Amino acid sequence: MSKKIVSIIASFLIASLVAVSYGISASGAGNPCTKIHTTKTIGKFKYECVKSGKKLVWNKGIALLNKPAEESAVPIPIAIPVPRGSITFENIMDNVDNVAQVAFENVQAALVSNPFPKAINTTIWVGPNTIPVGSMSEKERIQKAMKLWSGFNQPKTIGLFFFNTQDEPSAEIAYDSWRRTNSISGGQPASMLRNDCLSNNGPNAPVASLEPLKDCSGANAGVVDAIGTGIGIFGVPTEPRTRADTYRLGAIEIHEFTHMVQTAQFLDGVRQPGSAMQSISPCWLQEGQAHFAGKTAASNTLNEYLQQRNGEAKNRTNGNGDQPRRDFEGIMDYLSLTTLPSCEKTYSWGYATGMLAVEALSAIGGVQSTMALYAMEARGSTFSDAFKLIYGIPWSDARPILAHVIAQDYLVPSINVN
Asked: pTM (2 decimals)?
């Protein structure tokens, strides 16, 4: 190689090193930045744009922890801790009136920007006499839910069964056939599909009750084994008033698929995913997240979402006619982690108070921040540790703030109109 070529290469390498060095310096601590609270990762440090006097500069940065090997099995597609947005724990009490709108807009932005996840082996069975509700197909609704939670673990194989009262017997046959074809041993027996056409189809529903079927309206879903099999059961009503419920227009499928994604975070080949999640996660998060996701993702406008949101907050009871506590002390008690063992008594309050809690967290950290709580738990964190890592504030400090926000939400005039 000639001396001239060596000289050129050496000059190029020096110029490259200078450019790299300059890039690090220009983005590091104390240097100017353009938009407050934006972040940038360089090497093993994460920097945030902060205000210093009248200038915007990069802060000193925080060291990023080395990721344990097991994290690759439980991916989290967002930055941790979540970047600061227009609503924070520090200012949310001054912006309670804007929380619902910001949370709704965060969901719509995620649906636009999230990539569609890898293909999932999906079977959708619809009874021959079952007429879906709304203009979207079941496939379109499920695909919307898949995109909302893109980047997180999702089920590997799913079977979804939609049926009305007339088609329920055929649904049982189709369900059993699907399980045999896919060698699925987990999940409930086919006779349990009857419960979605009975008056009692909640967590304490009887096992395969033989009472006469009513108009089907129940739904349930989850991952049922450690290899990622998801099952969704949907009773489709024929009664016009029930079919006219706006919650039926896509929200119920997104709600139930969210339950599948929740449990899918706990796939490790050892534990039953559903029980693994429920043993450490607060009850309000389980239904609150699914309800919030379904209502925001299926609503085309903010007003559509608010109509459903306010109706749930106003009318939801625990099954015995008892409404959720709306005062600060009552909400604090409901959000307490010490109520985990007895949460069945107030399970349905997750559709109301839990939904409002998830709404607030989604306004602060984006909708996917709430699924990151489950992913961090699946990696081995407690709920409190996961919360601090994701939102940058201890749960003990965040809980009273959320309780104050929810108490204010319950004072919204439209919630209390008779």
From this structure: 0.78
Cα(164)–Cα(114) distance, rounded to whole angstroms?
A: 34
pLDDT in tens, 252-276: 899 999 999 999 998 875 556 677 6
| Residue of 60, 93, 74 whose CA lies nearest to 364 | 93
Instruction: Compute CA 39 distance to the chain's CA centroid, rounded to the nearest angstrom.
Output: 24
64 within 8 A of 45, measured Cβ to Cβ: yes
User: pLDDT tens for residues 218-259?
Assistant: 888 888 888 889 999 999 999 988 887 766 666 889 999 999
Measured on CA atoms in the order 348, 289, 311, 164, is the torsion positive or negative?
negative
Dihedral in degrees, nearest 10, Cα atoms 350, 218, 144, 166: 180
